[in-house]
Amino acid sequence: MQSLFANLFVVFFGIFATMMxxxxxxxxxxxxxxxxxxxxxxxNEGIAELFHSVFFYLIVIVVGVFWAIYSVVKxxxxxxxxxxxxxxxxxxxxxxxxxxPALLLVAIAFPSFKLLYLTDEVFTPSMTVKAAGHQWxxxxxxxxxxxxxxxxxxxxxxxxxxxxxxxxxxxxxxVDNNVVVPVDTNIRFIVTGQDVIHSFAVxxxxxxxxxxxxxxxxxxxxxEREGLFYGQCSELCGVLHGFMPICIEAVSPEKYLEWMDxxxxx
Length: 266
Hints:
The chain is α+β, with helices and mostly antiparallel strands. About 35% of the residues lie in helices and about 25% in strands.
């Protein structure tokens, strides 16, 4: 019970902190979290906006339906209105409750199709990062940049064991080599799998794409602010499926070029 109250305190404190002048972003999953992580890309913001809009109207509809059922049961009971049992159906009301959900689904479909198109389409990327899933780690390749030997910059990314975690690092989320990308840049991720099917998913960026052996899938994103954005493999891929996290570090273009120079010299 004490842990429950402690977790609730953390949740409410986080909500209060976001209202303060110094904004605190939630870019990693939290205990007892029931909402979205704070968005850092246009796609994530679009997903959250669509969800909240649909959920609001869903609540209105549910409340209206329960109010209508309660009113009918209360006011049109057979003991109060004996004539009611002579009516077996009503054409008008049946048309209303049949056509109304159809129109509602159409209204939801248009913004959904637009969002799906934006998530699938890749528009003139400025850089490309190839992510390959292995059992049970990720490997990355920056094919737009070459090192001194004329080869693409490549590295593997493993989860940091719990015994090696430093202060501020997250268990099962932090890795030894982050994927460093610049902010405000159209980035294309090409995802594949080297052994079994994996899934490259980063909630804060609105990214989720399967890595299938022998196939290349792509997704693009624009990171709008600096920070660390955590994700995990979202496709069951074996006994250590939960031990292959993703950590994307968004930095300024200047810091990104400095990091790239360091990687090219190694």
